[in-house]
Specification:
The complex is a heterodimer of chains A (451) and B (348). By secondary structure, chain A is mainly alpha-helical. Chain A contains 19 helices and 4 strands. In chain A, strands 1-2 form a two-stranded parallel sheet. In chain A, strands 3-4 form a two-stranded antiparallel ribbon. Classes of the chains: A mainly alpha (451), B mainly alpha (348).
């Protein structure tokens, strides 16, 4: 298509990045400039239902969900131990940017802490890269021995790895006599996110601690990280590697016979997913909790991230992001706030009662999603087809011709003669030999599937 | 011979080499395990005996739960993630029946009748919950891709945990019950505990074997495991058979729940996940889908775990989960068909 005007074409080409940046900037401005100037009747409910800290958590969980989406949604490898990467990311932050617990290596690199502060302090931005690479290595290490396993066995082995790694951190105060990661106590004080040159701008803090005003700036930082993950997810999917993943997900055997390198693609899926998990871990440790301890890294978190992916729609980046936002919000603030509201209406104190049902609610949600809307809220077209067509063996047993006839009837019911005519017309435009057939004739042929 | 055949034979040799490497690696690991056992035995025989007794006691319980996994997997190829949490719910029901309703304090001759009541109640409870889970959830997903029932099972396990976590059920903290045991104590092990577990478990296991190998329903189960459509063609009620399988598994989990509660005298909403995963490892160790394998695997895992925790040269209870999961991982990678399974084995 020739560009009609340079600017409009540029806009059309960058639809989602511009929209995304607009949303993040609007969110930032909402909390930074708009809300403080509004009357209390408007601003109080907004901050009660959607506090800044919750938005930051949502952004962090969306990074995690995008990472798992690469493994589960793109490559179709069910990973139930994803929490391992979150943990390793968090502990990398604990090792490289925290007050010392047993460390004697005094080293600072662009860190937003005083010169005299002991321990290793490396800037957040570098730690993200280091943690991502470490997690990618761990992902390959977990992925390599499991390459030959089928879906449900793979799920168990990854679950086992997740539990082993969590237990390693729980026992880490005494690994053969060494205190590797301070065991159950965890690593308490992790450096805030440093803003580097941006800190020189008037009004912008130099580093982002856990105070209310700094939390607002974290929307921009975490939003930028999430934007990066979105960009990578979308670009990688359309490329050679992404198409290889989709091929493996849909039919491993067919993919190998077509020359898709199975080992390399699967390992890269693990590596990329784990890289995102590492980013999420550092973002959580440095940006949200400000500390790491092994109690947070349980199997429930792996399932929570999986549920985000399933709820949003496996394989669809936007669906997964929305799923992550919804569930992270429910988990951190939503359930409590719903409890408060219902409690205010019924006169009972439900503020603490409803969050206690979150296991139950998450479990029921997962079951009902699987029963009634397996493809998720915002399904990816290809996943939808994959999840709703019966497996081939089942088709044979029911009678393949019945299933096929049903599919054909459905296609006819959904078909649009205008679109068919348009396609036929464009075929004629490409080559005069392909004369578009008469419209009436083609629809007749379609209407009689079992002729 | 054509060029194709030559190429084929060359590829075969590569695969064979891989098999040799894997087999020797597996044998080396097995030898290491045996050496470790002997080393523990030589270092401190009395301590070793105590660990073995505890291992037998836990191993029998693992075997009961592992049977539930292995039967369901054998018949419909589903890893029933919720099975461990069903077992956990059964421990809570057992506590309610035995302590709250029948007020048992000391396990002795007077507790036999309450024990029977609790066993029957919990087995019925386990069977009912498992069958309804199958009826409401898994049945609708039978033709769906395998990811769907697996995730449903994960969801159900969360539901069970969520129920147990409520204050009016068990609460989110560990709950200790005032249960006392009499009888002789050998190496820190209550012999009566082991006797009770054996006296309940062994008849159940024998009964299970009888049902599956001798009874008509067992024959139907094996037929459904092999080919559902063929089974339907010869007049077997496939849905009924699958429900029956779930009922058997649930009943065994219920019985295991009663025993676990009596032995440990505590209930906790998170028991099921760990216990279930260990039991599943046992099922895989024995060859999933294989009944004898599940029992042997359960005993083996129980022994390894207890010697690791109590033996002289063990890593201690801090690492026992990791040890079990590492066994699971190594097994899956080197020998996914387990000890007794063959690559294309007959299921159940």
């Amino acid at each position: 298509m020739p560009a009609t005007s340079g600017f409009r074409a540029w806009l059309a080409d960058h639809k989602w990045p511009l929209g995304y940046v607009a949303i993040i900037v609007c969110l930032f401005l909402l909390y930074q400039a708009i809300l403080p100037n509004l009357i209390d009747e408007v601003s109080t409910p907004v901050t009660a239902w959607l506090p800044v800290a919750t938005i930051n958590e949502c952004l962090m969980w969306a990074i995690m969900a995008l990472g798992l989406n690469v493994v589960v949604g793109y490559a179709g490898l069910l990973d139930l131990g994803y929490v391992a990467f979150w943990a390793l990311g968090g502990y990398t932050a604990g090792w490289l940017m925290a007050a010392p617990f047993n460390w004697t290596w005094d080293f600072q690199l662009f860190a937003p802490v005083a010169e005299s502060y002991p321990g290793t302090h490396i800037t957040f931005w570098l730690v993200i890269l280091i943690a991502g690479c470490l997690c990618a290595l761990l992902g390959v290490a977990i992925g390599a021995p499991t390459l030959r396993l089928r879906g449900d066995y793979l799920a168990l082995v990854t679950l086992g790895f997740g539990e082993v790694i969590t237990q390693f951190f729980r026992n880490s105060n005494d690994i053969d006599g060494y205190n590797v990661a301070n065991g159950d106590a965890g690593i308490p004080i992790i450096d805030p996110i440093g803003l580097g040159p941006f800190g020189l701008i008037a009004g912008v803090p130099e580093s982002l601690t856990n105070s209310g005003s700094d939390n607002i700036y974290k929307i921009l930082v975490l939003g930028a990280l999430l934007g990066l993950c979105l960009f990578v997810s979308l670009r990688i999917r359309g490329g050679r590697l992404g198409r290889a993943w989709l091929a493996i997900r849909e039919d491993q055997l067919a993919a190998t016979t077509m020359g898709v390198p199975l080992v390399r693609s699967k390992l890269l899926a693990y590596a990329v997913g784990a890289f995102f998990g590492g980013i999420g871990g550092v973002a959580n440790a440095a940006g949200i909790t400000g500390a790491v301890s092994p109690s947070g890294f349980d199997f429930g978190k792996s399932v929570l991230v999986l549920l985000m992916v399933v709820l949003g729609g496996m394989g669809n980046v936007w669906g997964v992001t929305i799923g992550a936002f919804l569930l992270a919000w429910l988990n951190s603030n939503g359930l409590r706030q719903i409890g408060v509201t219902i409690g205010a209406a019924s006169g009972k104190n439900l503020e603490a009662a409803l969050p206690r049902y979150n296991f139950l609610i998450l479990g029921l949600l997962l079951v009902f999603m699987m029963l009634f809307r397996r493809e998720g809220l915002l399904p990816e077209k290809r996943t939808k087809a994959l999840l709703t067509t019966p497996s081939r063996i089942e088709m044979e047993s029911v009678g393949a011709h019945i299933a096929e006839a049903e599919a054909k009837n459905r296609a006819i019911a959904e078909s649009n003669p205008n679109v068919d005519a348009e396609i036929a017309g464009s075929a004629g435009a490409v080559s005069p030999d392909l004369e578009p057939p008469a419209a009436a004739e083609s629809t007749n042929a379609l209407k009689d599937p079992d002729q | 011979m054509t060029a194709l055949a030559v190429r084929g034979s060359r590829r075969q040799s590569a695969i064979r080499l891989r098999r040799v490497v894997e087999r020797s690696l597996g044998l080396a690991l097995l030898a290491l395990a045996v050496i470790w056992l002997v080393w523990n035995l030589v270092a401190d025989p009395t301590r070793f005996t105590g660990s073995v007794l505890i291992g037998l006691q836990n191993g029998l319980l693992y075997a009961l739960v592992a049977l539930g996994y292995t039967m369901v997997y054998g018949v419909i190829e589903l890893i029933n993630f919720a099975h461990g949490d069903l077992f956990m719910l059964a421990t809570i029901v057992a506590a309610a029946i035995m302590v709250s309703v029948l007020s048992v304090k000391l396990v002795g001759a007077g507790a036999i009748l309450p024990l029977l009541v609790a066993l029957v109640g919990c087995m019925a409870f386990g069977a009912a919950v498992n069958v309804s889970a199958e009826f409401f959830a898994y049945r609708r997903l039978r033709s769906a891709p395998r990811l769907a029932p697996l995730m449903t099972a994960v969801g159900l396990s969360f539901v069970f945990r969520g129920i147990a976590q409520q204050d009016y059920v068990n609460g989110s903290a560990q709950k200790n019950w005032p249960i006392e045991w009499g009888g002789p104590i050998v190496e820190g092990v209550y012999l009566y505990k082991l006797l009770l577990v054996g006296a309940v478990t062994v008849p159940l296991l024998l009964g299970m074997t009888y049902i599956v190998t001798r009874m008509k329903m067992g024959k139907a189960m094996r037929a459904v495991a092999q080919d559902q459509d063929a089974a339907r063609l010869v007049g077997i009620n496939v849905n009924g058979t699958i429900s029956f399988t779930f009922a058997l598994g649930g009943a065994l989990a219920g019985a295991a729940g009663v025993l676990y509660f009596l032995v440990q005298a505590q209930t906790y909403y998170d028991t099921g996940t760990q216990f279930g995963l260990i039991a599943f490892t046992a099922a895989v160790l024995g060859g999933i889908g294989n009944l004898t394998g599940a029992v042997v695997g359960g005993l083996a895992i129980g022994l390894i775990q207890s010697i690791n925790e109590g033996g002289t040269h063990g890593l201690g209870s801090n690492w026992s989960q990791s040890v079990v999961f590492l066994i699971l991982i190594v097994l899956m990678v080197l020998r996914p068909e387990g000890i007794f399974g063959r690559a294309s084995t007959e299921k159940v």
